Amino acid sequence: MELLDKATRLFYASKATIVKHSPEILMVAGIAGTVATTVIACKQTLKVDKIMKEHKEKVDAVHTCIEEKRADYTEQDAQKDLTITYTQTGVQLVKLYAPAIGLGVLSITAIVSGHKILKKRNVALAAAYAIVDKSFKSYRSNVVERFGAQVDDELRHNIKAQKMKTRNEDGKSVNEEVQLIDGDLSQLECSDYARFFDSSCQGHTKDPEYNLMYLRQQQSYCNEILKSRGYLFLNEVYKILDIPQTKAGQIVGWVYNKDENKVDGDNYVDFGIYNTKYEPSRRFVNGCEYNILLDFNVDGPILDKIGFGRI
User: Fold this and answer.
1) Which of 42, 158, 270, 283 has the smallest count of CB within 10 Å of its CB?
2) 148: left (phi > 0), else alpha (psi -120 to 50), else beta?
3) How far apart are CA 81 and CA 280, in angstroms?
4) Phi, psi at residue 46, to the nearest 5°?
5) Are 292 and 204 in contact (CB under 8 A)?
6) In sequence order, which residues have a C-beta less than 8 Å from that of residue 67 and are 6 or more positions away?
7) Which pLDDT tens digits describe the chain residue by residue (311 residues)?
């Protein structure tokens, strides 16, 4: 009984794995089938000369009989023989290429099926992200309504009051309480889309000033794309900064609208470089750090917000 249970669990686990990876399996099978179709077609083409040679001999024989004007071979007989000859040749050619044609149809079907599965999953994933994004925005709206925008900002970014030495108007050093995000990254509350710009990125250097200038230029470039095209996906920004792309990045992003009354977001791209409440960001901007944690101000899922007449 235990062995049967294990076999059952193994069967369903294998089935689930196959279903999970079915798009990749179908795409690979389709590509492999397409290659095999080409190989088979090339091999079968080598046999075409023999078929066409036999076809030519039969047709020439019919024409020879017609030219000799044989009494027992009429024009109707010649037309009948030619029809039979062409039909037989056509059937031979179809049989010759049937395996390649069949495999090609199956390959195309596999690729199309894999694409359809991926499309359905992307639609479902976008819908799920839209629900989560709507719930989060609703939650923040309730916090702002009850406790105010300052409390919402403090809770979202884990802002704490810290005492720092500053200088007053007379130039004297005084202790001032400043609201700062805790520098401990384990305590930092950032979005799921935040990523480090560090030595793993192609445009990164050990020069803090160059890194700041580079990020500002890339941020401006992304805003130009957003304004000219009307939308921008987070994965596109990741690619520009040489940051590994994510599944969420192909769904969330920014939407630009010239009509300010229809804006449903910030209407611009912000990398979060000048986050003055986060001490490491302050050090980066001041040239004391050459790495920075970028937290992008995405509008949320945008697949349902782009299209004809929507931007």
Assistant:
1) 42
2) left
3) 90
4) -65, -20
5) no
6) none
7) 667 766 776 666 666 677 677 778 888 888 888 888 888 888 888 888 888 888 888 888 888 877 777 767 777 878 888 888 889 888 888 888 888 888 888 889 888 888 888 777 777 776 766 676 677 677 777 877 777 776 666 666 555 555 555 555 555 555 555 444 444 444 455 778 889 999 999 899 999 999 999 999 999 999 999 999 889 999 999 999 999 999 889 888 999 888 776 667 788 999 989 876 677 788 888 888 889 999 999 988 887 777 644 55
Q: Which residue has the tokens 């049937």?
A: 98
Cβ-based neighbour number of residue 197 at 10 Å: 23
Do 114 and 30 form a contact (C-beta atoms < 8 A)?
yes
The sign of the CA dihedral 207, 212, 215, 217 is negative
List Cα–Cα distances, 220 to 2, 27, 106, 197, in angstroms.
Answer: 63, 38, 47, 17
Cβ neighbours around 289 below 10 Å, total: 16
> Bridge-partner residues for 300, per DSSP?
253
Place of tokens 């044989």: 70
CA end-to-end span of the chain, whole Å? 61
**pTM of this structure:** 0.50
The tokens for 160 are 């704490």
- Residue 194 phi, psi dihedral angles, 5° rounding: -70, 140
User: What is the token pair recorded at 93?
Assistant: 């050619």
* Order of strands, sheet of 231-233, starting from the edge strand that comes earlier in the sequence: 231-233, 252-255, 300-301
| Residue pointed to by tokens 């609208």 | 257
CA–CA dist 118, 136 (Å, integer): 27
Give yes or no for a contact between 302 and 253, defined as CB atoms under 8 angstroms apart: yes
Report residue 33 as tokens: 């089938």
